[in-house]
Amino acid sequence: MTISESQLETWAKQGAVTTSASTYATIKAALESSTAGYAGKDYEIYLQGSYGNDTNIYKESDVDIVIQLNSTFFKDISKLPPDQVALYNQSFVTAEYLYATYKADVIKALKDTFGDDVVSGKKAIKIKAKGNRRSADVIPACQYRRYKHFRSHRDQDYTEGIYFKGSDGTSIKNYPKEHSKNLTQHHQATGQMLKPFTRILKNMRTRLVDEGAIDADLAPSYFIEGLLYNAPKSEFKGNYQDTFVAVMEWLRKADRTDFVCVNYQYYLLRGDSLVTWTPEKCQTFITAIIKMWNDGRV
Asked: Does 6 map to a domain?
């Protein structure tokens, strides 16, 4: 047995767009308050995650938002030669507006608008759903620079990411802009099949969770996107049924050791990082998805 093409077409459709857009606009307006402690500084606000990458499904709720402070940034200069490290250190001064103050200012700006609906979580500031507003996660982040070279302000090159701290003080670095750019490029290279196929697997994951076949935290959307990003564009072909068979068979047989995250800054399957997936969880997910397909369960 297999799953019908019509069912796959249903799962491939994008979830709520209008309510997520209005939620983003409402929260963005609150963050842009002229009385916020960071008002007048260099910052930007943008979507990340499923809504930001157009891979959201109907059952998805949280809208993921980043407010990125650029006037204070963190860096990785470990790849620079000693002479360039010296030049870098001569070119910048220690920031006066520190991350802890910035995060507190973001929380205040949100509480001024949403009151008790704002709750600080492990990684993000959570805003509860209310009325037509969807629930949202806001990450107060600073720009992060992974330097490739530094010779002067005019001659420098780095990969831009974000830096933020969890509630336990753990430092987290990620690259949502690189993720979005690379995912879209591969989506286009696959004849615009990658994102709808991602939504298919996410809907299958949701069904498996509802049935109790897998744990809810086994396969976050970020890692499903990463898994499919590593599948060659040649495997996305024909209709969704053909693509499912080709992609999942390729993933089943592949040596996944050196799979990369979509941002191309980390390996995807490692067990020692907050931004990577364990090989065991990946294997469990692939096995469960293939079994669901073979059983024809919908």
From this structure: no
**Residue-wise over 223-261: b if at least 16 C-beta within 10 A, else e?**
bbbbbbbbbeeebbeeebeebbbbbbeebeeeebeebeb
Half-sphere exposure of 293 (CA within 13 A, CB side): 20
> 229 versus 94: which is more confidently predicted?
229
Same domain, 88 and 149: yes
DSSP code, position 268 = S
Strands 156-165 and 63-76, how do they pair?
unpaired
pTM over 0.90: yes
Q: Is residue 167 part of a domain?
A: yes
Report whether 259 contacts 268 (CB < 8 A): yes
**The domain spanning residue 130 has which CATH number?**
3.30.460.10
Q: Does a structural domain hold residue 9?
A: no
Mark which of 174, 203, 234 sits at the end of a domain: 174
Q: Is the distance from CB of 265 to CB of 175 less than 8 angstroms?
A: yes
For residue range 168-206, list pLDDT tens digits in order.
999 999 999 999 999 999 999 999 999 999 999 999 999
Total domains in the chain come to 2
Distance in angstroms (rounded) separating the CA atoms of residues 3 and 10: 11
Determine the distance from the C-alpha atom of residue 36 to the mean position of all C-alpha atoms in its chain, rounded to a whole number: 26
Q: d(Cα 136, Cα 63) in Å, to the nearest integer? A: 4
The closest of 229, 127, 228 to 178, measured between CA atoms, is 229
